[in-house]
Amino acid sequence: MKSFQKSGRLKYVMQSKLFLIFLGIIILTFFFNIFSFMNKMGETSRNKETIEDKVTELEKSKEKLNSEIIKLKTEKGIEENIREKFGLAKEGEEMIVIIEDKNSEEAEKKMDSEGFFSFLKNWFK
Questions:
Q1: Which residues 6+ apart lie within 8 Å of 13 measured at CB?
Q2: Distance between CA atoms of residues 27 and 24, nearest Å
Q3: Where does the chain cross the membrane (predicted)?
């Protein structure tokens, strides 16, 4: 008979509103933690992809720099680098330097900004 009364007390406690509210709070906390963990996993996977892209980019850059280093160890590579940096030419070669005319750009901008009426006025002059 005592065991029946004890189980009745346990059943009463487990079915009480206070216990059910406490149990609901615990379950909600677990769900919140699970969703938070899933969000962190997603963020981590995105970061991993970004880092992997950067690693491949850096590996390509490393290969390019290694090829340039190998090229600079040769006499032809050194000569080419000096020509590129300082704009030098060999004996017998000629260089052509192209200079842009800034005045023509300013005149075009001025004509564009004057408008339609000045266009007509200039046409009939």
A1: 19
A2: 5
A3: 18-38
CA angle 61, 62, 68 (to 5 degrees): 90
Question: Are 71 and 77 contacting, i.e. CB atoms less than 8 angstroms apart?
Answer: yes
pTM above 0.70, yes or no: no
Cα(72)–Cα(84) distance, integer angstroms: 13
Lookup: tokens for 116: 């339609």
Return the H-helix or E-strand segment holding 91.
none
- The Cα–Cα gap between 15 and 24 comes to 12
- DSSP-derived letter for residue 73 is T
More confident residue, 8 or 112: 8
- Token duo for residue 87: 């704009």
